[in-house]
Design goal:
Elements (H helix, E strand, L loop, with lengths): L9 H23 L2 H5 L6 H7 L3 H18 L8 H14 L8 H13 L5 H27 L8 H22 L4 H17 L4
Helix pairs in contact: 1-6, 4-7, 5-7, 5-9, 6-8, 7-8, 8-9
Length: 203
Amino acid sequence: MSESGEKVTAKDTREVIMEATFRALSKHGYTDLRMRDIGEEMDLTRQVIHYHFDGKYDLMASFLEYITEQYEGSVEVDESDPRTELEARIDQCLFGPEFDQFTHWDRMKVYHELFAHAQNDERHQEILDEHYDNIRASIVHVVERGIEEGVFREVDPVLMGQHITDAIHVGRERRISLGHEDAPAEAREAIHEYVLDSLYLDE
């Protein structure tokens, strides 16, 4: 249960519902999740959920937006040079950032479960597409910057960004779905040895 039963603003209410959804999804999974399970994870009445959301699918779409907004807004990297920034972005996607509640992997477990069900929901696809594009765009941007500054080789920045982003997703999925604890570290090692080493001009 949440710790506070005090009156909250609309913004606070949304966050209470979203964090309760995290807890309920972590316990029950997407397929078996019921609105009452979410209601049991917070001090606010279950009617508050129905007031703000038109059923489970509407809530799940808003929850996906919440996850991606929170994740993208928490990324902090050193932009002093392209190499440092690129490696930091890859590490952030694979290993962090850290949150006050629920670890990076708690969040990724829920994210990837919803990702797996997106084929049946067009709105979920749109949200996940946008998030994927934002991650890829951040990598494309730093690759373009590195080429312009003469520290990266001439490559297709979009293809490079997509290749790195896909490798990150596979590494995370192996850890979450198959229990391969070393998968993220192995993905980072492969990206560094077979992608970044060939990208850096001084290697």
